[in-house]
Amino acid sequence: MNRTYLIVKYLFLLAWSTFVVFPFLWALSTSFKDANAVTSGARYIPWLEFEPSTQGWKSLFTSGSQGINIVTPFLNSATVTLTASAISLVLGTLAAYGLSRYQFRAGFVKNSDITFFFISQRIMPPIVLAIPFFLMLREIGALDTILGLVIVYIALLLPIAVWVMIDFFGSIPKELDEMAMIDGCTPAGAFLRVILPNSLAGLVVAGMFCLIFGWNDFFFAFTLTFTKTQLLPVAIVSLNSSVTPWWSLSAFALISVTPLALVAILVERFMSRGSLSGAIR
Amino acid sequence: MARIVLRGLGHSYRNAPQCETDYALKPVDLTWEDGKAYALLGPSGCGKTTMLNIISGLVTPSEGRLLFDGRDMTGASTAERNIAQVFQFPVIYTTKTVRQNLAFPLECRNWPSAKIAERVDRIARLLDLSDILGAPARRLSADQKQLVSLGRGLVRDDVSAVLLDEPLTVIDPQMKFALRRKLREINRATGITMILVTHDQSEAMSFADEVVVMKDGQVQQSGPPEHLFARPQNEFVGYFIGSPPLNILAAEPGNNRLNCPALGLSVGLPRGVGTSVLSFGVRPEHIHLVDVAGTAPGARVEAVENLGVERVFTLRAATGETIKVKSRRHKGLSAGTDIGLSVKLGDLLVFGNGRLLGDGEAYLPSEDVG
Prior knowledge:
Chain A is mostly helical and 281 residues long. Chain A has helices spanning 2-31, 35-39, 55-60, 71-101, 111-123, 126-139, 146-170, 174-182, 187-198, 200-216, 219-223, 232-238, 246-267, and strands at 105-106, 109-110.
């Protein structure tokens, strides 16, 4: 019984991991192929089925007509995502703390309505926002610039940060703030000196969501830029011309996935909420 | 350290309180003298915690004023008030060590680090925390965590008052006893006002110079424990203070006297009671069991509860009323036995509409026996 269960379990896990990992393996193997190996039928194993070539990887770092410039889009993407995520995280955390600890009221609008307003920004289909964003950025001359994208990305990431952090602060007992104030902190001091250190897990989760959504966004990076400012997802798609260089494309895709994969491995231990229990009782 | 005065202080969690029941704490005038140990006693939800939170500044009262040594502190920040408070359940800073936890209130007030270290060590020794000062606070057991909370409350030596909101609930009984004594010692040694919220009356009686009894957001009575025991201002206080509670017995006016059929006693009819519903109260400790053969009124023993040194007898009087008696004697008495009752007239309390008649010593039942 136990043995059968184990076998079934591992078979399932094996099947599932193959399913998940396969696209990466495929991309990895393709990135080392030349044009010939790509077009002549299904081949996966280097040396055995095809002769590996590093032309795909080399092309990413050579400039000129033969090469594809990956460095500039990579830096652009990194700048936009990191800046927008950092700002969203700071503003979002402050907003979420306010909403979780104080009662706001303007007419019939209460805390829950404000929270919903934030979240509703993500419920809306992004395409609805494309034209307004385009017009607004054109108005301030921020189309096709890093600054313009940062502004738009903050608008997209802020709701995520607020959402995650409201939930997280809700799980931190209010007594902790009260205690800090009785111990002599100002309300701001209580937040900075007591609540924030206790919120590392939440901040990491919210930050990670921001990074993922920011780094992966294609739609706004595509509609709000032309030629000057290119982000990674747009750069990858633009490789897809009449003759697609599958080897460069695969290498490109792998490189653009790497940062997020590294982040995921680094912060995995924060993804469980266990680290915050025990503040009260 | 300060004399804390509540002047017409009340609080409602609603926006516009309409009637009395809207108040979590009904407007009250109360003075907490500097340096005394107080116990705030009352059933759950009677406004004890609201009152503490108003004093410490976590709650802003909807009406009335709060004075520290005559200074109006109603709107002052928690830091300005310099109150220490310990909650019912331990609140600790999980990201800090025990030492950092204890030092935090002092760091917030920018004490010099040498002084902080000295003070932390002293409090740690007092609460037997010296060995675990370096440990991360989140690893501690529940009662150790509460000791840390308590330590954080006691670490400042200049506080206006220490408010203890049922802090001993999670502590195991033996430790509880020792801690209570320790708190008392600290109060005596430092002269810091302490207010202990509790619903355990023995805790209140043994800790406090003065006990304040609350019910439904209203202060019922305050005074020294003995006084509350001997002269409860109303039936609630009589019922709440003392274990088993005060026996409440029917009082029947007749012949210009007030008779207690269950005990076979009668007192002179108190004046000015009009149509009040009258009743007698007598402490279980003040009823003596005597031989049934005499003239004493009888009762039947229904149950005996052995408390170790003492026994609590549940008796059924001839009138059908239940009477509890607490005694160290009569070890052989068992259920089903008939026994006589004897009560000194001075131990008899008379209530009109639930309130003690004759405030203080003004009215005492007269000496005649019926």
